[in-house]
Amino acid sequence: MHQDFDNLNKMNTMFHPIFLLLGFWYIFPAYIANGFAVFAKLIKFRHPIDGGRTLSDDQPVLGPGKTWEGFLTGFCSGVIVGILLVMTGPFLLALIIQYLIIPPELVPIVLISVPLVILVALGALVGDLIGSFIKRRLKVGRGRPAPILDQLDFLIMSMLMGALITPLPWPLVIFLLIVTPLIHLLANVIGYLLRLKQEPW
Known about the structure:
This protein is mainly alpha-helical. The protein is built from 7 helices and no strands. The chain has one domain (16-193). Mean pLDDT is 84; it is low at 1-11.
């Protein structure tokens, strides 16, 4: 019975708004990597990752929108921002401890490491490429929406690769799966208004 109460208290703590926000702290390099890749469109000459190749279905492997310049721009941006989070993590932990008792399993999420940042940022970009590959196989035209896949491909792969070092507790996973599509849509609308994207989704 005592263990049941402990588990209940632990679950309630994990759903505390402050601790849910730590999910953003962990995954923020992925958001940056996925979002900043679009800025490579400002580069005049870009090189498609698939080299313009098609498969037996006569569809591109990935499509001309997935370029090495975009991949590197997103990756470097995500890692740079992630390193800033690594540097400020101890200050955030000290601030949280002043007001709340933080569950031990959340400490590694606050004190993220550089290897974790690299995996999370890389996972976002790899997930986006996988999503493009699937869309081409489904013959979804470039720029056309693919609900759920568009919003979650980068997130799922990012969390899977990040879990190799520090897995997220399941409440944070669920939280991110719910809110990320909304954030993704907002980011795409902003990119569209800035004329960095041809479509607002």
